[in-house]
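Hey, weird one. I pasted the Class II glutamine amidotransferase sequence into the form twice and got a warning about non-standard characters only the second time. First submission, copied straight from the form history:
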Amino acid sequence: MCQLLGMNCNVPTDIVFSFTGFAMRGGQTDTHHDGWGIAFFEGAGVRHFVDHQAAIASPIAELIKRYPIKSTNVIAHIRKATQGQVALENCHPFVRELWGQYWVFAHNGDLKEFAPVLNGAYRPVGNTDSERAFCYILQHLRARFGEQRPPLAELRAALADMAREIAAYGTFNMLLSSGGELFAHCSTNLFYLVRQHPFDKAVLSDEDVSVDFSQVTTPNDRVAIIVTQPLTTNEQWTAFAPGELKLFIDGVPQAGD
């Protein structure tokens, strides 16, 4: 299956270190070679890069590893196709508008016989179960709450209900963000860690690269990393429980998780 990488933080931060290790799984240290993508929120806008080539061979992936784009919310994905051909339109993350905001979504898993009726503004461009799920989520949220974004607690409860519904069709690990927060749902495998003061050195598991974060951060910085499988060998990663939906704001998992 595919793999997910998310970042949520309290100050704009680059994802170069984590993405360097993550991209190695796109054809070198793992078999996720059917495309990749990444989206960075910057204010109300989104920088969105996708490629149907394997991340290990993609010139665009090399650009991301060398160009420190800073953002408070990032979602990345490397693909091992289960549904839909290897094509640009089937590469995650997907981006749509809801309530005057961009929403970014990526999914890891396989949803069998998931064919919701999509009769509103949200229709898939490609032919993946993942994009169908994203369109269904946004269609349901607009139908339930209308044209006004609800309070965060209500939105979180609605997403938890929808995640349970969709997960009944198979594996539904996903990341979802509108730029101010990051939702993460686990069916099988998701892990997270929070880097904050006092910062220390981190060592990638997929590449011979390390960073001493104490040299490149301030005491006020806080960064949450969410990933399918831990990226580093010397940090303490926390596993999600199956069926768990977590909400991250400013690098902190919110109460109620």
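That's the output from the first submission. The warning seems to come from a hidden character in my clipboard, not from the data itself. Residues 3-253 form a domain with the Glutamine Phosphoribosylpyrophosphate, subunit 1, domain 1 fold (CATH 3.60.20.10).
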